[in-house]
Design a protein that fits this description.
This protein has 379 residues and is an alpha+beta fold. Helix content is 49%, strand content 15%. A seven-stranded mixed β-sheet has the order 5-6-2-1-3-4-7. A hairpin with a 2-residue loop joins strand 1 and strand 2 (139-149). The relative contact order is 0.13. Pfam families: Acyl-CoA_dh_2.
Length: 379
């Protein structure tokens, strides 16, 4: 089947929620604080409050609690906009939105616990299975350590994935949601890039989690939501997973382009520099187009194996292309672009770090799925 199959109708949630406009107002604030956030390895309160107030956490939250149930396209545009000012701010904003979408799989009582008092509850998620849980009366006892939980410093809740006994079969995987105070945070994030994301380690030591704050991981992977019929709450993870990570990188690359262009003046402007910036800009625009295409697939609900595999390919190729673009820009800017006070070197480090994410690697994301589309299944 061709990935260019006729598009399904757009969802009813296509109206503008105002998030993109709010992101445009957030961008200069994020840029202003970016140098200190990078040096201090944490986003300041002014920025995290602004992320919350802009509406990122409520973007996928249920409308009955004041959420906006917005589109993937609007969220992507908003994340890219913030990323032009600060990649770490965009990363945390993106994951705050997508974590709320994950939380939509909780039972109704879990929805009440998270959003009953505010749709702007921030959830940080540890997607990779790393702990264990055992069933007890009324819920689960959970223990484990989850690394790389971005935005945990300002999150109200965390959601983590753990294995539970599967009877005679292999262990099953479930997500468990815990409020601030039920877990501890170890400051283990020391990456050279994306420093301000605060992607630290969450530690849970034999904590009781009620049944209404847990759901089976298969529900999220399949996109079948037993609690909500809202279209954005019923999306297969394969189709959407990488978009949350690549959109901030597109914004960061656009920010790097602007930073580089601002440094090429006077004697530094040459035919060679102009050509290099031109080549980088083409790569950034191409990556942006592919990421926009991914959001369109989601909003039009084109959940065929071909479209979902292409989404994975688009994200991994965009990551590769954006790394190439920022490398060109660093070369064009020269030594001055690597000064600690220059925004370009921060974008360079952030893009390098972000594109190392497992969701943006060919071998762990797109190779098997999209090669099967192009070449057919392995015999």
């Amino acid at each position: 089947m061709s990935v260019d199959a006729p598009a399904a109708p757009a969802t009813a949630a296509a109206q503008d929620t105002g998030l993109a406009a709010a992101a445009d107002r957030l961008r200069p604030l994020a840029a202003l604080h970016a140098p200190d956030a990078d040096a201090g390895r944490a986003l300041p309160r002014e920025v995290t409050d602004a992320i919350r107030e802009a509406g990122f956490a409520r973007h996928f939250a249920p409308a009955r609690f004041g959420g906006t149930e917005g589109t993937f396209d609007e969220l992507t545009r908003a994340v890219v906009s913030v990323g032009e000012g600060c990649a770490a701010s965009a990363w945390c904003a993106s994951l705050a939105a997508y974590s709320a979408r994950f939380a939509s799989h909780l039972p109704e009582e879990g929805h009440q616990a998270l959003w009953g008092t505010s749709p702007d509850t921030v959830v940080a998620t540890g997607l990779m299975p790393a702990g264990r849980a055992r069933a007890v009366d009324g819920g689960w006892q959970v223990t484990g350590r989850w690394a790389y939980v971005s935005g945990v410093d300002f999150a109200d809740w965390v959601m983590v994935c753990a294995a539970v006994p599967g009877g005679d079969g292999p262990p099953r995987l479930r997500f468990f949601t815990l409020p601030r105070g039920a877990y501890t945070v170890q400051e283990t994030w020391n990456s050279v890039g994306m420093r301000a994301t605060g992607s630290h380690t969450v530690v849970v030591d034999d904590v009781f989690v009620p049944a209404y704050l847990s759901f089976d991981r298969t529900d999220m992977l399949s996109g079948r939501n037993a609690t909500s019929t809202v279209p954005v709450h019923n999306v297969p993870f394969q189709a959407v997973g990488s978009l949350s990570f690549i959109a901030p990188v597109v914004g960061a690359a656009a920010g790097a382009l602007a930073a580089c262009a601002g440094s090429i003046t006077g004697r530094r402007r040459s035919e060679s520099a102009e050509l290099t910036v031109l080549r980088a800009s083409g790569r950034i625009d191409a990556a942006r187009a592919l990421v926009t295409q991914n959001a369109e697939v989601l909003d039009r609900r084109l959940f065929t194996p071909e479209h979902m595999a292409r989404n994975e390919r688009n994200a991994t190729y965009a990551a590769e292309t954006l790394r190439e673009a920022v490398t060109l820009l660093v070369g064009a800017a020269g030594t001055g672009g690597l000064g600690e006070e220059h925004a370009l070197q921060r974008f360079w480090r952030d893009i390098t770090s972000a594109t190392s994410h497992v969701a943006l690697q060919y071998d762990t994301s797109a190779r098997k799925t999209y090669s099967a589309v192009l070449l057919g299944p392995v015999e």
